[in-house]
Amino acid sequence: MDLALRLGRRCAGLTAENPAVGCVIAHNISGRVEIVGRGWTQEGGRPHAERVALAEAGPLAREATAYVTLEPCSHTGKSSPCADALIEAGIARVVCAHPDPDRRVAGRGFEKLRSAGIAVDVGLMQERAHRDLGGFLSRTVRYRPWLQAKMAFSPDGMIGIEGQGNYPVTGALAKSRTYALRAQADAILVGCDTVLIDNPALTVRLPGLEARSPVRVVLDSKGRMPLETILVQTAENTPVWIVTTEQMPRDKANALKEKGCDILRVDATPEGHVNLKLALEAMAERGINTVFAECGAKLADEMLKAGLVDEFFLYQGAEQIGPNGLVALDGSPEKALFSAGFILEENCNMGQDKLKRFVRPQSLDALYGD
Ligand SMILES: NC(=O)c1ccc[n+]([C@@H]2O[C@H](COP(=O)([O-])OP(=O)(O)OC[C@H]3O[C@@H](n4cnc5c(N)ncnc54)[C@H](OP(=O)(O)O)[C@@H]3O)[C@@H](O)[C@H]2O)c1
Questions:
Q1: Using one digit for the tens of pLDDT, what is the confidence trace for 121-145?
Q2: CB distance 331 to ligand 1 below 6 Å
Q3: What residues contact 67, with CB distance under 8 A and at least 6 apart?
Q4: Which CATH architecture has domain 144-366?
Q5: pTM (2 decimals)?
């Protein structure tokens, strides 16, 4: 199951709206257990992991055990059910880490396997699967994506310099880790002011992973996004969605569409900003499981206040910024996170910098559904 989970992680960020699942088929050959098939969900969400592993195993799947990270599907969607494929291949036992809360499956996958005489065990390494499949579970159970937020702070609580974009709060290692996190998400999210000030590309710039840049989403309530930004200019290559409100003029929306951007309109808050919960729901409707938000001060504040952040990546740079600094979360991010109910889960050094990863246990509990 450990291997199946690791295989599932390979395709994180590539399978939306489907989950990134892993599968291992092990056969007892003359008293020796051998792995005869490995599979993970393929780009775009299919074929599913079980089918890839079964194809590799071929006739050796007969009487073998399949380890799979999520309950095999039992409904006919764009492909026929994986439960049927496991039965047809003659699998003797299925060990599964996590049940699928999708109403079309929800226990029916296991039922189908058991009715065909297959032994089924559920729950092996479930906690890890729960984390790894968090995006899919969140969209299925809460109708919104798993929301990761990332911010880099200087030791004096600043995220940049007032009026100066792209201030390097942290070094190269931290940047690489951010690229990797971008690659594993289904969408990157920023507030409009970060685009206006930094003009970022928001792509994955790691050797070999350039093609894994996910969709880039900007919250722009009034249509302030200039057509000359890198994001708009590259929208034909890497998708850009702009979540806006009725306040964006039609001609601006048309000009952005002509450049290849997609426009999603949602209701505004009483203050005239994009309603964040509706924005996330609109993204979930389009199949987005996991969102990686690179927060400026205002976006971080609003997201935390609304209780929408599930996981927080807090980078801490080594150098003070001083009096011209841009303060965020009152200059005390950890205090803000602890009072919002987060716990510290990971704490590591990245060269001179530190990365602390926080999670909200309530968010994880909510993914179990009713
Ligand atoms: N160190 C870091 O980790 C890091 C990361 C990112 C950015 N930054 C820095 O942060 C600065 C920008 O931050 P910022 O605080 O000025 O802006 P921001 O958080 O990037 O963007 C805020 C803007 O997003 C739009 N927005 C739409 N709906 C919103 C909502 N519900 N809640 C909040 N905002 C919403 C608003 O403009 P409309 O109302 O017009 O839509 C708002 O003015 C830049 O200097 C950048 O370099 C630092």
A1: 999 999 999 999 999 999 999 999 9
A2: no
A3: 1, 3, 4, 23, 24, 25, 26, 95, 96, 124
A4: 3-Layer(aba) Sandwich (3.40)
A5: 0.95
